Amino acid sequence: MSKYNNQISDVILERVNIVDLISQYLPLKRGGRNHMGLCPFHNEKTPSFSVSEEKQLYHCFGCQASGNAIGFVMAKENLDFIDAVEFIADQFGIDLEPYKITSGKPDQSELRKRLHFVNRQAAVYYYKNLKRSANAMSYFSQRGITGDMIEPFWSGLFRKYLGWTA
Question: Can you give the pLDDT at residue 105?
Fold first, then answer.
């Protein structure tokens, strides 16, 4: 489960210039439209690591490593996606709070109270309808269950499980 909504990667990639980020790890020199440097992922003597400010992507022509700012931090710092996002946000002062996911689930104690209330209402409903129904009382009579037996059962049920008397 993710800590942040799906927009978080878009937010990071829009607000962080990949050249600024990668320049913190290695020197880059402008070469035409792109910036070039020695690849941080393998040893080389001549620069084959290209960073496109326009596309906000990097690519190494030597080892074929490529990706965006988040992918670079994941690879370079050996972090998972969430940790890389938090790392970049911390470095560039991006507030992640608006993008956090709240579970949307009610508190368990509140849920328990709601279920208790609903069960209590259902029990009262069935008990009142049981006493009013000639068919139900006839069924109980055929089974040898009298009204004197039903009353203590329901009263005990209300007290024990529902916490009140009907």
Answer: 59
What span, in angstroms and rounded, lies between the C-alpha atoms of 142 and 78? Answer: 74
What is the Cα–Cα distance from 124 to 158, expressed in whole angstroms? Answer: 9
Q: Each residue of 94-103: pLDDT tens digit? A: 998 888 877 6
Residue-level pLDDT at 65:
94
| Arithmetic mean of pLDDT, 30-42 | 94
| DSSP-derived pairing of the beta strands 57-60 and 34-37 | unpaired
Report which secondary-structure segment, H or E, holds 140.
helix 134-142
Instruction: Give the integer Cα–Cα distance in Å for 37 and 22.
Output: 10
Tokens at residue 163, please?
A: 């916490």
CA distances, 89 to each of 33, 73, 83, 102 (Å) = 27, 11, 10, 19
What dihedral do alpha carbons 152, 154, 157, 162 form, nearest 10°? -130
Yes or no: say if 87 and 96 are a contact pair by the CB < 8 Å rule.
Answer: no
